[in-house]
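User: quick one, fold this
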Amino acid sequence: MSDNKHSAKHQLNADEWVDKYADMLFAFAVVRVKDDAIAQDIVQDTFLSAWKAREGYKGEASEKNWLYTILRNKITDHYRKLSRTNVSLGLEDDTQDMFSENGHWTSDSAKQITDWQSEAASQRVESKEFVEILTRCREKLKEIQNAAFTMKYLDDLDSSEICKVLGITPSNYWVLIHRAKLNLRNCIQKNWMDK
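Assistant:
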């Protein structure tokens, strides 16, 4: 009897995909690509690819997990395409005012770091307002910076996988992540911490 339970396979119900999964898939995609139109296209591509691959579905994963796997692959394809175009890597320095000529933190920047480490600041990070401001600040990142940041901190990919997907060197990756974090910190500082 337990063998039958374990051998039961998941079934596809393609007629219900849009109603059951479109909103969830879109929410997942838009956070990663930061553009509603691109996220909608990726979700549509996901459904189309799933439809074309439905005969190969073995039922080992749930329908929902299978669709999310296809969506993740479509998002990765988007990142790859992005890295192949001559999109700026976001290596321009938007943070010059944070460092002195010899590369050390300026006194204002050092004070801000101390402010960020306070207990009051760490409690504020848990608020809904913070999440909204972080989302808006992420939208201001260059697309390639946001892609690297998202893959590292939302998708939990390791640096070698991110470099492979984006077609960049490890040193470019670390610069992208560093600049993304500094730009996010700067934006959050201006729009949330200083208020």
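User: anything notable?
Assistant: Residues 45 and 119 are 45 Å apart (CA to CA).
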